Amino acid sequence: MRDAAAGARVAAALEAELPPESGTLTVAHLDLADRSAVGTFVADRTGPLHILVGNAGVVFEDCAQAEPVTGRTGAVADQQ
Questions:
Q1: Residue 60 contacts by C-beta under 8 Å, 6 or more apart in sequence?
Q2: How sure is the predictor about 75, in pLDDT bands with cuts at 50, 70 and 90?
């Protein structure tokens, strides 16, 4: 996630709606375009990874309203 605080708010809202036995949600920075960020993400993992949500933008060169994509981000969900 680019904005860890926003990710933490979303994770807290989701956890509030889920039953306690659903496990825990973990928000972590992961820029797939940055090898050192991937290495840090892997090194920080202490348990199994059950879900990785990748969120990447799409740029259409012919579209006047296209926004640039500067990196790839992801969100992580853990279950215990």
A1: 66
A2: very low
Domain ranges of the chain: 4-78
pLDDT single digits (tens) 16-55: 999 988 888 888 878 878 899 889 989 998 888 888 777 6
Alpha carbon distances (Å) from 68 to 6, 44, 77: 21, 30, 27
| Token pair belonging to 2 | 């680019």
Residue 64 CA: distances (Å) to CA of 1, 45, 54, 72: 27, 41, 25, 22
Give pTM, 2 decimals.
0.52
Distance of CA 36 to the CA centre of its chain: 16
Amino acid at 56: A
